[in-house]
Amino acid sequence: MQQSSNGDTRRAAQRAFTIGVAPNDLDLTELRELLRTAGVAVTGEMVQRRDRPDPDRYFGRGKLAELKQAAKEADANLVAVDDELLPRQERNLEEELGVPVIDRTAIILDIFADHARSAEGKLQVELAQLEYNLARMRGLWTHLERLGAGRMDGGIGTRGPGESQIETDRRLARDRIAALRRRLRETKATRETMRRERERAGLPTVALAGYTNAGKSTLLNTITGSDVGVRERLFHTLDPTTRSFEISGRQYLLTDTVGFIRKLPHQLVEAFSATLEEAMGADLIVHVVDASAPEGDMHQMMAAVDDVLDEIGAGDRPRLLALNKVDLLDDEHRRQLSFRLPDAVQVSGATGEGLDALRDAIEARFLATLRPMELLVPYEEGGSLSELHDLAGELEREDTAEGVRISARVPAAAAQRFERFERNGDSPG
Length: 429
Known about the structure:
The chain has 429 residues and is of the alpha/beta class. It has helices spanning 6-12, 29-37, 61-73, 87-97, 104-115, 119-134, 140-146, 163-166, 170-201, 216-224, 266-271, 273-280, 295-311, 331-340, 355-367, 382-392, 412-415; strands at 15-22, 41-49, 78-81, 101-103, 205-210, 241-247, 250-256, 284-290, 319-324, 345-346, 371-377, 396-399, 404-410, 423-424, 427-428. It has a 6-stranded mixed beta sheet with strand order 6-7-5-8-9-10, with helices on both faces. A 4-stranded parallel beta sheet has the order 2-1-3-4, with helices on both faces.
C-alpha cells in the first residue's frame, strides 16, 4: 500500500485480527475489505459458532482466551469485530485482550468520515458518529488513549468531524445532535425544492442503487459521458451525483447514490436519509448488481440493497435489475444468469456492452408510466402548449376554432397541471 502522508503511514501500521460470531460458517471477506479501505492490515481471523454473541464479552470465555493467544501470535495491535458491539462488550473485550477493539459500525463510520466531500455529507457523518459515540462516552477518552490517538494522530475510529464535540459531556453532544438535525432538515428542504423543480420540468429521473463496489459510478460515466471519480474501494461515492443523458430525443436525469452494504449501520441509514431519498423520488430505480460475484454473495448483496430500500420507504418504487461487469463472465455463466434472472439486463459499464439494451429497458419502463390525455388548449395558453411539447415529446395536434386539440402521453407527475384542459368527445373538460 502506498502511503501519501505520515498519517496514512501510522494508520497502515495498525494490524487487525478480525472476529465474528455466527451459528454457521461466517465469511469475513467483507470485513477485511472494509479494513483495507480504512488503511488497516489484517493479520488473522477467528469465528465462533454460536447462536448469538455473548452479551457481555461477544465471545465465550474459553474462546476469548484462545483469541487472546492467537492475536498475540499474529502480532495484532487491534481487534475488529464483524458486528456492532454493545458498549459493555467493547469495554470487556479491551480489558480481556489488552488491545483496542473496534466494531463494524465504527469502521464504516471512519470510512465515511474520510470519504465525505460535500457540506451535507460531512454533516451526515458527524451526526452518525455522535449518535454512535453517545452511548460510549463514559470510557471514550480512555479508549482513544489506548489507541494512541487524539485527532492529530489519526487511527481508525478516531478521525472525523465529530471528535471536538465528543470531548465534551453528553448534554453538549445532544445539543450538537439537535443542531445537526436542524441543519440537515434545511438541506433536505433545499433538496426537495430542487426535486420539485425537476418534476415540473418533466424530466424522467433514474436512480442507480446497489451494493458498494457494484460499479454504479462507472455505469453512470459510460451512460452519460461523465468523468465521476471511480476507484476500487468501498464507499468511494458518498454524495449523490446527478448527470443528464438522452434516449430517443428525451432528456433523462441519472443519479448515482451511496453504495449499500450488509449490516449497514442504522445511524448511517438515518443520517443519509436525505441523500437516499434521491432513490425514493426517482421514477425508476436501476438496481446495479456485480454479476461477477459468487452466486451466494450476489444474492446476499441484492437482499441487503432491498432491505435498505425498504427501510427508507423506496421498496415500492419501479425497479430494473442491471447485472453489471458481465465482461468478466464466460458465455456459460451469462446463459445461467439469463435463465435465473430473465428480466435483468446484462451490461458492462467498463466496455459499454449492453448499454443499448439498458437504455431501451429504461425507456420502456418510463413510457409505461405515461398518462394518455386528450386535451383542448386555448390559444392564449401558449405557455402550456410549449410545456406540453417539452414534456410529451411526440404528440398529435390539430388547430381548431376553439383551440388546439392535442393527443399526448404525459408524465404522471405532470399530468395534474393539464387536467383542466381535458376534454370528453368534442367538449372541453
